[in-house]
Specification:
The chain is mainly beta. It has a domain at 1-16 and 35-78. Helices cover 0% and strands 27% of the residues. The chain has no helices and 5 strands. It has strands at residues 7-8, 11-13, 39-44, 51-56, 61-66. It has a 5-stranded antiparallel sheet with strand order 1-2-3-4-5, with no helix packed on it. A hairpin with a 4-residue loop joins strand 4 and strand 5. It is elongated.
């Protein structure tokens, strides 16, 4: 299990994924006055059927259903029973 899909009680709430942590693309030069408001989270409530990738771009949230963690590959849509890992 990785920090991005860790359990907190019976829910999955992963570490925020910040774009400034991404590997730089070759040849891309970021403008000096550019500020990126994008935040990503992997979330799943104990009542949810599927885990999701929550995308916040500063203007609102979008939610995409996912089956596996994109970082460690763990299956995320199993029933959350007696998970107490943090």
């Amino acid at each position: 299990m990785c920090n991005y899909c860790r359990f907190i009680g019976k829910e999955i709430h992963g570490k925020a994924i910040k774009p400034n942590e991404f590997k730089k693309t070759a040849g891309y030069i970021e403008p000096k006055n550019y500020r990126d408001y994008l935040d990503l989270f992997i979330l799943k409530n104990e009542n949810d059927d599927k885990a999701g990738l929550m995308i916040d771009n500063g203007n609102g949230y979008r939610f995409i259903d996912i089956d596996y963690c994109p970082f460690c590959g763990r299956k995320l849509n199993e029933k959350l029973e007696n998970k107490d890992e943090i």
